[in-house]
Amino acid sequence: MIRKNHPKFVSTAAVLLGAALLLAGCGNSTTPAQGPAATSAATSAAGGDGYAAPTSSAPASSSAAAATDLKTASTSLGNIVVDSKGMTLYFFTKDTKDTTTSACTGECLAAWPIATTTNATPTVEGVTGKVGTITSPDGAKQLTLNGMPLYYYAADSKPGDVNGQGVKDVWYVASPAGEMIK
Q: Sheet containing 171-174: which strands, arranged edge to edge?
């Protein structure tokens, strides 16, 4: 006779309960998926030096999620360059054209994460400037436009946000032709 508090009974019951819950989750595949949880907007701007990280985090660039690295979008600033998810990309005026390294390092990168790709050749839609890559200190391929590295702004929480425009007079969105929009 097996007692209900016997370790083997409890273990077997737990496995069967887990399997039942797992199967219940595999129900009707035509049920619409729940949307992602709403993300909160950044509650603070960059710190006094223009580099301090805001309270939200920037999206990670993922070319696995979409084949296009750069495309264009219409925003309150006009037609600008965004990533495959519609997140705004920025130029840093302290970078040098045709540089092989980013001028944004250390704390700067917390507020201004680099835009990366895993594609050997970046893919674009509507972007007419010259697109390329440089190697970041951690070995990632940082996207460039007309020889200038591209960045996200951590306070941009959704597509169309342009909160980084003009920060400290050194951060500007990119036009499809690869020019800074000031």
A: 90-92, 171-174, 180-181
pLDDT tens for 167-178 read 999 999 999 999
DSSP 173: E
Bridge partner list, 173: 90, 181
Residues 65-77 have pLDDT tens digits of 447 999 999 999 9
The Cα–Cα gap between 70 and 116 comes to 10
DSSP for residue 42: P
Q: Which of 2-6, 10-14, 74-78 has the lowest mean pLDDT?
A: 10-14
Q: How far apart are CA 26 and CA 48, in angstroms?
A: 50
Q: Any idea what DSSP says for residue 23?
A: H
77-108: burial string, b at 16+ Cβ within 10 Å, e else: beebbbbbeebbbbbbeebeeeeeebebeeeb
Contact between 132 and 147 under an 8 Å Cβ cutoff? The reply is yes
Could you give the percent of the chain with pLDDT greater than 90? 59
Task: Give the angle subtended at the CA of 89 by the CAs of 117 and 116, to the nearest 5°.
Answer: 15
